[in-house]
TrEMBL record:
Upper taxonomic lineage: Bacteria, Pseudomonadati, Pseudomonadota, Alphaproteobacteria, Hyphomicrobiales
Keyword Phosphoprotein assigned: no
Localisation: Cell membrane
GO cellular component: plasma membrane
Predominant place of localization: membrane
TM helices/strands, residue ranges: 27-46, 58-77, 83-100, 112-133, 139-160, 181-208, 239-257, 293-311
GO molecular function, one term: transmembrane transporter activity
Pfam family, one: BPD_transp_2
Protein name: ABC transporter permease
């Protein structure tokens, strides 16, 4: 009888471990299934031109999702990234066209590198502002970043009274003629945006897995009070993750303005939803303390392929929104299920 009970428990533990492994690999499975589905159903899905377009779209979402991963792992949320994209796109457009008017008949003009640095500083500043609201004023992350969402979007509209900044070709006399290259240029046949994404992803993965800061981010998200008692500066960690998220959003604003050679204040609307979807689909827990940059990148590919594939199949934009919402809900439900299975496996291991 005892032997039978032991065998039953071992079988149950083995099944739970197998199921847990499948759940952990769910993003890869989803990517494979989505890829195969659209390769069969969507015409020209695997054409070189379409693959290039998808890679650019995935890169934009991946930037935001990487920053969002850090924020969510640390126990927060950043709803302002889409508005930061729009504001930074407008700032870059304004600097390319006008520079900074000193009001005395003179203006300061900038080259492409200086424009990029200024825009990145704007994104970082807004991210730091989010972090300060959360840490110093104890505003809930949802409310703080929701407020920043409106402020940044309003500022983007004020830049041009709601109009577009067109013809962002740059000026050779000021060294800004290379601005469009950021969005449309390529190195070794690979878009510049993909190279930038690779650098950002490597830096983010290194921070997350190889530095004390990365361990502190996970500690704060897993147990903020415990992290504080163990000597972690919780405030600095939270300010860093929001600053990093702002930097990623600024990069997206730059790249979009460069790709389109125009900037519009509505740029980036609802981008935060795609970023959250990619992060959660990639295994990042909304309760904090768990998530991987690699998983987020795969999640960004799933969201990007899903969006472009649905467009190629002629699916209504309204249904696309519904499907994205269902994907987010399914990802969260599966994540909760994974946590329950993981807890069960740990109990079986301790019992044995």
């Amino acid at each position: 009888m005892s032997s039978t009970t032991t065998d039953t428990k071992a079988t149950a533990s083995s099944r739970s471990s197998t199921l847990l492994l499948l759940l952990k690999m769910r993003t890869l499975v989803a990517l494979f299934l989505v890829f195969i589905f659209f390769a069969v159903m969507a015409p020209n899905f695997l054409s070189a031109a379409n693959v290039l377009i998808i890679s650019k779209h995935v890169a934009l979402n991946a930037f935001l999702a990487i920053g969002m991963t850090f924020v969510i792992v640390a126990g927060g949320i950043d709803l302002s990234v889409g508005s930061i994209v729009g504001l930074c796109a407008m700032v870059s457009g304004y600097l390319v066209l006008y520079g900074i008017d000193l009001g005395i008949g003179w203006s300061i003009q900038f080259n492409t590198l200086e424009i990029c640095l200024i825009v990145l500083l704007v994104g970082a500043f807004i991210g730091i502002l989010n972090g300060l609201l959360v840490t110093k004023l104890n505003v809930a992350p949802f409310i703080a970043t929701l407020g920043t969402l409106y402020v940044a979007r309003g500022a983007a509209l004020l830049f041009s009274d709601g109009r577009t900044f067109p013809n962002l070709n740059g000026n050779p006399d000021y060294g800004s003629a290379s601005f469009p290259w950021i969005g449309v240029g390529s190195l070794l046949g690979i878009p510049v945006a993909i190279w930038i994404l690779a650098v950002v992803a490597i830096i983010a993965a290194y921070i997350a897995t190889r530095t004390p800061l990365g361990r502190h981010i996970y500690a704060v998200g897993g147990n903020e009070r415990g992290a504080a008692l163990s000597g972690v500066n919780v405030g600095r960690v939270k300010i860093f993750v929001y600053m990093f998220s702002g930097l990623c959003a600024a990069l997206v604003g730059l790249i979009i303005a460069s790709q389109l050679q125009a900037s519009h204040p509505a740029t980036g609307e609802t981008f935060e939803l795609n970023a959250i979807a990619a992060a959660v689909l990639g295994g990042t827990s909304m309760s904090g303390g768990r998530g991987r940059i690699g998983g987020t990148l795969i999640g960004a590919f799933v969201i990007g392929i899903l969006a472009d594939g649905l467009i190629m199949m002629g699916v209504s934009a309204f249904w696309q929104t519904v499907i994205k919402g269902l994907v987010i809900i399914a990802a969260v439900v599966i994540d909760q299920f994974q946590q329950k299975i993981q807890a069960r496996v740990i109990l079986h291991q301790q019992a044995s």
